[in-house]
Amino acid sequence: xxxxxxxxxxxxxxxxxxxxxxxxxxxxxxxxxxxxxxxxxxxxxxxxxxxxxxxxxxxxxxxxxxxxxxxxxxxxxxxxxxxxxxxxxxxxxxxxxxxxxxxxxxxxxxxxxxxxxxxxxxxxxxxxxxxxxxxxxxxxxxxxxxxxxxxxxxxxxxxxxxxxxxxxxxxxxxxxxxxxxxxxxxxxxxxxxxxxxxxxxxxxxxxxxxxxxxxxxxxxxxxxxxx
Length: 227
Hints:
Structural class: alpha/beta
Number of helices: 8
Order of helices and strands: EHEHEHEHEHEEEHEHHEE
CATH topology of the largest domain: Rossmann fold
Shape: globular
Radius of gyration: 18 Å
Oligomer: single chain
């Protein structure tokens, strides 16, 4: 596994690099927001740890530029900005997870590995698809990737987890609490409203498929085929 660490604090950067390398994870590090995007594109990491308070370009700007450039690498924001508003802003910008400092190194490693597992391989042949098609979408049961008309949808790990759950029962409501457990497993510090951010992003990404993600107030979410 290759990890891109974007962190301007030299002590924190050294501590994290040594910790992950002892656990068999290759680390590429960067301390400057202006260099971060180019290094991200060049190194092709499996996951990114991103501080927000960076010199040159703020971490949220780096994340926004990366997503706009089509980079779908799972991202965990690590920052001293730990308010609920900061977390929602980070998730809405494209982060997949958010850990306020200080944090436990074992928990951070577990979250990195979980995100990489959930992101699944980017490749795969359409012939490997096994689930029934719905609105042109199918789930590869081996990798977990979702395909639309034979082409993989580019989704962040949490968007993918939500779509997988909804495709298991298209046309049927799934409770918001159940989806939260599937999208944010074991993450008790995440606010319940964060599921709305994931739904908002997923809704835009499947708009071209003919499926509509519907919010049912007090019930949850469902996928509905457009007439």
